[in-house]
Structure formats: structure tokens, C-alpha cells
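Posting here for the record, re: adenosine-5'-diphosphate.
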Amino acid sequence: MGLVVQKYGGSSVADAEGIKRVAKRIVDAKKNGHQVVVVVSAMGDTTDELIDLAEQVSPMPAGREFDMLLTAGERISMALLAMAIKNLGHEAQSFTGSQAGVITDSVHNKARIIDVTPGRIRTALDEGNIAIVAGFQGVSADSKDITTLGRGGSDTTAVALAAALDAEVCEIYTDVDGVFTADPRVVKKARKIDWIASEDMLELAASGSKVLLHRCVEYARRYNIPIHVRSSFSGLPGTWVSNENPQGDAQVEHAIISGVAHDVSEAKITVVGVPDKPGEAAAIFRAIADAEINIDMIVQNVSAASTGLTDISFTLPKTEGHKAIDALEKAKGQIGFDSLRYDDQIGKISLVGAGMKTNPGVTASFFQALSDAGVNIELISTSEIRISVVTRQDDVNDAVRAVHTAFGLDSDSDEAVVYGGTGR
Ligand code: ADP
Ligand code: ASP
Ligand code: MG
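Prediction output follows.
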């Protein structure tokens, strides 16, 4: 029996009962002969509540102190979980990200893991302990300050530890039975996927399926760590995410469409009246990049012949909206645009599937389904295995359901159970 890393999300440890339930599961894995490393998130919506609190004392909390605050959430759950395990008669020790050797760059609020040195975890395991690690946090190699990995970052902590400790599997325990063909909170007839290729999961995660974080899937793919996403509330097997199909490609056919993802966490900025000449887009996106903001879709309109001016729209996380507007206003003189428009009432719907590469009808059917549902499209972007559109936020749920049905993804039964969480 080898080493397993188990990650429990906030909804799995939302209250004392949840912590005790999870402690039993962990002890069972230990009793089955595994060495167990647990990564735990903050209880329930603690992180959101801490953010709300910070916003009451400062309009745009950020940086070092914000990270200090947010990491407190995971410290609470890790200590309580260790106590609950000890109460069941087993040895457990909790560790902050820094103590567990999660080394990051120094970008506060969305740091990247650059190294994992889990010496203390190894020692704790060798001494017979269950090791509990606070997810979503690390320590900067340069500044020695505490950092966080961005929302949902505990998934990345889990996979990074699994890679560093050469675990046989990384189990992600959450409040649904695995990865479904759409968010079960939106599509009751979503179907559980038994196995999904890392490539497809990467696109779903990047398109907003928050059941797994994009960076976590990226990490798992690079280090070839199989992920098992499953519910901490049921004993059912979940979804395996791996580079190779565990049963061999011949037995399980690769689905044409893997699923429908949606995302309402983005906003759209339109830079109005940009001179249509070389260097303008470069100047706009240099200003954005210098503010360390990641953008998603970009669209440039055809310029009006009479004015020689064009508009450039792009999407970005809502949380970066203010920063982006500030950065562009500062660079206005150099870029030379008329005005900025900010719209945070947008939503994105994406259809993902490796089969798209060879099925030319997919795009047309996708647009037809949206049109039949009366959904207006504002932006479009595609990759080899994904089509995404931006719509009004209010249309997103209807659009997801319409596309899910149009592509024959609805299951015959209502198997998509949501066991907990608030969907926040
Ligand atoms: P945790 O607290 O365990 O990290 P998250 O809320 O981050 O949980 O992720 C689980 C949630 O992801 C589910 O409750 C579900 O609403 C959402 N979700 C979105 N897309 C999917 C999908 N394709 N399959 C399963 N869950 C999804
Ligand atoms: N607690 C953090 C969050 O809510 C990290 C996580 O849950 O993965 O984003
Ligand atoms: Mg999560």
C-alpha cells in the first residue's frame, strides 16, 4: 500500500460534524495500510467571509496582509481536523503550507508553486502520523512572506504534494460525485464522467468548471499524477482524470463532447476609440500585463473607415477589474484611446471535447442551440477542442441547459446529487 494524498474542500469540512465525518474517512484510509497526507480547505465559505470582512475595512484589499488574513481559514480547519483524528485514536500533525515546504514566487494572492520540499511531512509520516496540510498557501522563496495560490488553490497544493511525495493517487473530495458533463447545480440531468483525459479536463477547468482548478490539472498532467475526484459524502467511485485511459483506448471510446462549462466570474472591458495602427494592441496589453493581470478572450472590431478608430474588448477576472481600469487610465496618454467601458454582467459558456477536431458540425449545432434558446452572443473564441461564447450573465444557466440537451448529454436519471456547499 502506497502513499495517498486526499484533499477535502470547504463544503466537506463546513462544520464540526463535517470535520468528524472526514476524520473517519481519513482514518479508514490509514487503517487500509496507506500513508495518508491530507490537504484541507477553509471551512465552508470562510474564505469568502474573510474577503467580505477585509472589504469592510479597505475598499480593495490586496497583497501581503490579505494573504495573511486568508491563510487563517485553512489554519483553523487543519488544526480541528488533526484534533478530530486524534480523538479517533490515531496520530495526526497539522502543517501550514510553509511548514509543509510549499515554496512559491512572491506574487501575492495568486502565487505559483516553484518548489515543494516536504521534509517535515516525510518525517511525520515515517513516525506513523497522518499529515494534515493547510491548502491554498505557501511561502515566497524571495520575500519569505506568506502567499496564497488564488481561489480554489487547495487543489493545486494537493497535486503538488502528490508529485513531490510520489503518491500513487491524488484524491479530491468534494460535494458532488465527480466531474459531470455540466455543473450539477445548473443541470440536474448532468451525467457523471467515469474517466476524462487531462487534456479535456484542462479545458473544462480553464473554462470555469470549478470542480478542479486549472492549475491543478496542469500540474497533474505534467507530473503524470492520476486524480480521483469524488464525494466525501458518499462511498461512490468518482471520476478519474489522467493522461492515459486506465482501460486502454480501445475499450472506452473518447467522447466527442466532454462537457459544458460556464463561468460568471469574468468581466469585459472595452477600450473605445483606439487608433488603428501598429503597436496599439501591444501598448494596451503591455499595460495590463505589467499590472500582472491575466486576460481571457480578446476581440478587435473592424475600424470605422471615417475615423480610423477601432474598439478592442477583452475579458478578465472580475476581481482584477479595478486594477485593469487603473492601469489603462494611467497609460491613456501613451495608448491614445477615447474611453473605457466596464461590464461585469457577462457570462461565458464553453463546449469542450477532443472530438471537435474532426466533427465540423459541432460549432454550427452549438450556435443553433443558443439561438433556439434565445441567447445573444457577444464574443466568441475557439481552441482546437473548445468553443466559448460570452453572453449576458442572466442567460447563462438557460444557455448551459440548452447546449447540454442539444448535444445529447442529458442522462436518463437524475443522478447528479449535490451533497453540500452553497455554490458560492
Ligand atoms: P470544494 O469546496 O470541494 O473545493 P468547489 O465548490 O470548489 O468545491 O467545487 C465543487 C463544485 O464545482 C460543485 O459543487 C459544482 O457546483 C461545481 N462544478 C462546476 N462544474 C462542474 C462539473 N462539470 N462537474 C462537477 N462539479 C462541477
Ligand atoms: N479556501 C480557498 C478558497 O476558498 C482555497 C480552496 O478552497 O481551495 O478559495
Ligand atoms: Mg474547489
